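Note to self: the last two entries modelled the partners one at a time, which told us nothing about the interface. This time every component goes in together.
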Amino acid sequence: MTAIDTALQPAHDTAHGHHAKPSGITRWLFATNHKDIGSLYLWFAFSMFIFGGVLALCIRAELFRPGLQFWQPELFNQFTTLHGLIMVFGAIMPAFTGLANWMLPLMIGAPDMAFARMNNWSFWLLPPAALLLLISFAVPGGAAAAGWTLYAPLSTQMGMGMDLTIFAIHIMGVSSIMGSINIIVTILNLRAPGMTMMRMPMFAWASLITAYLIIAVMPVLAGVVTMVLTDRHFGTHFFNAAGGGDPVLYQHIFWFFGHPEVYIMALPAFGIVSHIIPTFSRKPLFGYTSMVYATSSIAILSFMVWAHHMFTTGMPATAQLFFMYATMLIAVPTGVKVFNWIGTMWQGSMSFETPMLFAIGFICLFTVGGLSGVTLSIAAIDIQLQDTYYVVAHFHYVLVAGALFSLFAAVYYWFPKMTGRMYSEFWGKFHFWWSLLWFNVTFFPMHFLGLAGMPRRIPDYNMQFTDFNTMASVGAFCFGLGQLIFFANMLHSLRHGRPAAAKPWEGADTLEWQIATPAPYHSFVEAPDLEVGENGRIDAMHGGKHH
Amino acid sequence: MASRRVLLLLTGWSSAVLAAGVNLPPPVTGVAQDIYDLHMLLLYITGGIFVLVFGVMFWAILRHRKSAGHQAKHFHENTTVEIIWTLIPLLILVAMAWPATRLILQQKSSAGAELTIKVTGYQWKWHYDYLDDGVAFMSHLATPQSAIHQVADRGEHYLLEVDQPLVVPTGTKVRLLLTANDVIHAWWVPQLGVKQDAIPGFVRDVWFKVDRPGTYRGQCAELCGKDHGFMPIVVEARAPADYQAWLAARQKTAAANLEDPNKVWPLAELMARGEKVYTQNCVACHQANGKGIPGAFPALDGSAMATKDKPGHIDIVLNGSKKNAAMAAWGKQLSDTDIAAVITYERNAWGNHTGDVVQPKDIKAARGGKA
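The predicted structure of the combined assembly is written out below.
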């Protein structure tokens, strides 16, 4: 292991010794340290989350009551499109990559990510991409307004905002593929001795499987938007029926990316929750092996169900049936995971610090999203619900209460390890209860709106939809406000939080809790000598050197 | 029998929910009713699962907490339990898939239709063509712009009203052939249990059979650009005799309105017709006063194009704008007479007094025989 370690140390480390820590702006611009890069990712993701959130509030402001108040329909469409794109590619995915960067080497006993210099590039590709999306609002014709799915032929109609969006997607795709290669190689090659694959922490498993998904599908997305680009400018007719193309082909390719993408945003969340629930239940994770198998089968199944987004395109009954059955099947491994988490809590000795609250909130609300997903999977019913607010409700239960809540849980959970300080438990709990309440006020009524017949992506609506829309808008603004509380708490605790112990959580037993707090600038320079138990639990450390 | 009573009880409860506007609107076709029932069945099953699963979790949260002095047990495997909770959901899914499969096959069988109507989606209106009866018309949003922009009051059917609804006979299997002209639209009327994408270059079909006369409303359900939210669908189901009377009247007016493309129109008649066309098609962007919306849609009142550049004006109305996708190519949607009328109107309304008269034959010439 020593040979590997030496090989992986960034060059400046050997030159200046292990304690060299670049300072100032160069520390961040040329960052190769997995913790610095992780922090960059997390800050970037948070600022994108705020930006995407403001766009969401623009949408909710317009929908507060019927009639056009603030925006023209075209601008409204730009808001919905960019809100989706930014939240998916700017906020949720980079946030998970950031956490993986920060925690994976610590969890598996590695000195750093496998490709430290490439890691720098995979992060620094993101800000230019975000900038392209941002400036697209200012170009003639405005930003892309075809929805985050960018369906052709509508997307071939747009102005140059669409081209900027396509380039931004290319860059973000390259970034996430590079990030994924790094995660895979790190996990496969740099685990501490004794940590077999089946004794790896669940977060490592989730990140590994997610990284494979990203590598499999991001090129598909890049391909399909490139096809849009050539249709727009180079006279191809991939999606133009008049030229022999097929508009539905776009949807097939897009959703072949888009459905696994849903799990790219959900699997890391599963991994995080699989750490937090055992920690605060003071009990090992129930059914580690079936968790690994469930996660893998979800990933595999996710490739076979893309057309359930297309039940209304007029596919034959046999295709509808195949995609319906395959989609329904995903409920089984997902159910196993939920049951395992509850099995972990059962007969535990639970305490309810903020990370635990967010994790429990995640399980409840994610399951609501999962159950409405089962309803949507039934093609016959989906005919009524496709492209309505019911779907908006469904995927926000999965992505806000799923991905976002688990991210909050993770940030609170690992905050002491990252910063050496405790966050304010009072404001953490306040943030949870506030978010939980207003999240439900915002998104639960959308089920009713969709059932009653309100299509998604409309800037104005019939009066029968007023009450629930008003409610959702109020909820959205309050939910947004709550995130400032989170921000303030983090910022304040970063400086003034009470110093944290190396292992602030009684029940935490994975490797990252064995090293000092805050985590030293360089992680395991020599591989730790440890005994790894089941569930990735570290049973004992034998004087492994770390700084 | 007991299960029948439970079902009745549940249906009674569900009709109360239905009235409150939190569920699918009252179905008026057999398929819509089946969708409704299947949805309710799923709601009970998934609701039951939720209560059961989280009942167990909250029991654990209440009883197995550290503050209550509960000591953690250390088990972390139980193969039997894990197999059981894999198999039971699987069985539940099979129970759901069974009725769903039957319903899908029913939804998809459009054979044996007694009336076939071709529906074409345009940005942003629907064209209905009664293939066997020689009747065809466009259906536009009928809500005035003043209501959308907060000036006038909004009626009960705000944004869900059209100038010419699709009229169908009751008790008849109606088959719709759907396609689109520009981008993908979706034809959706919840009460009929029908939603089908209309895809340019392709024809899809869907069917429904309404039992009760009435007016049923829906909207385009696929993001189709700027006015996606302003593309309602209204279906009027009439008793067969009423339907026949309506059809005969439409056929008569259609015959009477057959236009001579070479007719030379006086300015006043073109202005009157042009204003109507403008109100239906152009007013959302360019506004009733011709001032447009600064920064988004150009003004026509006093603009160089609408006062000087006549060929450019005809070209942009016919073929759309290369620079701004929101300006559609109206050549595919409007007749030569309508386009001539609206251009004449735009060149003479508001502060524009060019005195230009554009005749249908000018438009025909501008199309270059491509019409």
